[in-house]
Amino acid sequence: MCDLDTGKIVIKGIRTPNNLYIFKEGQQQCYLSKNNEHWLWHRRLGHLSFSQIRKASKYQAVRGLPDIRIPDNTI
Fold first, then answer.
1. Tell me: the pLDDT tens digits for 18-54?
2. How much is the pLDDT for 52?
3. Contacts of 35 by beta carbon, 8 Å cutoff, 6+ apart
């Protein structure tokens, strides 16, 4: 897993065929944090795409959802 801001590796693991990541032994904590509001809402809404979050914001479909911009570092 890489830090999105620096590109630096934060933690290493093995991906299983069903996309579950198993961290290598000895690594018990991960301190990766992203405080940007758009990423917070992305996680809160079950990893909904940013275009769908923008649409929900535009039509006021989610109470309390601010106007979210699409981050530059997304595909």
1. 777 777 665 555 554 545 778 888 888 888 898 899 9
2. 92
3. none
E strand or H helix that includes residue 54 = helix 50-58
Please choose, from the candidates 45, 21, 36, 70, the residue with its C-alpha nearest in 3D space to the C-alpha of residue 10.
21
Which amino acid appears at position 44 of this protein? R
Residue 68: exposed, middle, or buried by beta-carbon count in 10 A (0-12, 13-18, 19+)?
buried
Q: Which token pair is 44?
A: 């809160």
Output the CA angle 56-41-3, nearest 5 degrees. Answer: 135
